[in-house]
Amino acid sequence: MFHGSMVALVTPMDSDGEVDYPALERLVEFHVDNGTDAIVAVGTTGESATLDYDEHFEVMRRTAEYARGRIPVIGGTGANSTWEAIKLTRYAMEGGCDAVLLVTPYYNKPTQEGLYQHYKAIADAVPIPQILYNVPGRTACDLLPETVQRLADVPNIVGVKEAYGTVQRAREVIERCGDKLDVYSGDDAIGREIIMQGGKGIVSVTANVAPKLMHDLCAAAMRGDIQEAERIDAQLAALHKAMFVESNPIPVKWAVAELGLMGPGIRLPMTPLPEQHHETVRQAMKLAGVL
């Protein structure tokens, strides 16, 4: 349903941590102009963990409003409470989002049966297309391929963002579920390889900084142009790495501010990128040809 480069959009903030909505509108235009295939609003990169309910809903709603149907908008609505995730998912649908992205419940470590029941309850409660999101490095919770396979039979579960961190895991999910739902890479550095294995795109941090290149990379990989996909990926390799010199979204927010698209605001407990990493990120941006 959603294919290609899907930016995990940063949430722009003023220096005092307030959401900067004019900058958000500029970012949406930036991605429309540069060919990004979909926008994920208020995911991990969008600092979902530190936005309150009203802010969370408003950022999703305004992103959809600014997009005006020109680009799909996917709202990040995962939570470690099933009730809370249902509420946020309903907000996203009412606010005009085209789909939602649901991270596994974090901290409370549900069983695989608990994960199945969690996702099925959300899908049953809200009839919007839903994408599962597995990122055990952040959540201490691993959505196993066999559980994804069970969930693939739920009609409005249409995809999974697999950020386990290996091509092998993504390949197993594709082999089990590829005819029933779309599999997306949650890691920029291995996204090309996952698309070559049958994945349908990348939910990308790098696309915040190099949207056209990420779109072109995904398009080349999906049409089987291995040489062109490898060329673009090599151009972006340093940038993929630089986006994680500190915890996401610290480096990417600094990089987007360096492009002049927003201010450097970030919300505690995240802190600004230390000066010792500025030149590393700046040089990676230059190597990618975006600065």
From TrEMBL:
Gene3D superfamilies documented for this protein: Aldolase class I
GO cellular component: cytosol
Catalytic-site annotation from UniProt: 133 (proton donor/acceptor), 161 (schiff-base intermediate with substrate)
Enzyme Commission code: 4.3.3.7
GO molecular function per UniProt: 4-hydroxy-tetrahydrodipicolinate synthase activity
SUPFAM superfamilies per the UniProt record, alphabetical: Aldolase (SSF51569)
Principal localisation: cytoplasm
InterPro entries: Aldolase_TIM, DapA, DapA-like, Schiff_base-form_aldolases_AS, Schiff_base-form_aldolases_CS
Cell compartments where the protein resides: Cytoplasm
Pfam families the UniProt entry points to: DHDPS
Reaction(s) catalysed by this chain's protein: L-aspartate 4-semialdehyde + pyruvate = (2S,4S)-4-hydroxy-2,3,4,5-tetrahydrodipicolinate + H2O + H(+)
GO-annotated biological processes: diaminopimelate biosynthetic process; lysine biosynthetic process via diaminopimelate
Pathway this chain belongs to: Amino-acid biosynthesis; L-lysine biosynthesis via DAP pathway; (S)-tetrahydrodipicolinate from L-aspartate: step 3/4
Marked site: L-lysine inhibitor binding: 49, 80, 84, 106
Binding site for pyruvate: 45, 203
Sites marked Part of a proton relay during catalysis: 44, 107
Keywords for the protein's UniProt record, in alphabetical order: Amino-acid biosynthesis, Cytoplasm, Diaminopimelate biosynthesis, Lyase, Lysine biosynthesis, Schiff base
Signal peptide span: none
Function text: Catalyzes the condensation of (S)-aspartate-beta-semialdehyde [(S)-ASA] and pyruvate to 4-hydroxy-tetrahydrodipicolinate (HTPA).
Matches recorded under HAMAP family: DapA (MF_00418)
Annotated family: Belongs to the DapA family.
Protein name, as recorded: 4-hydroxy-tetrahydrodipicolinate synthase
Name of encoding gene: dapA
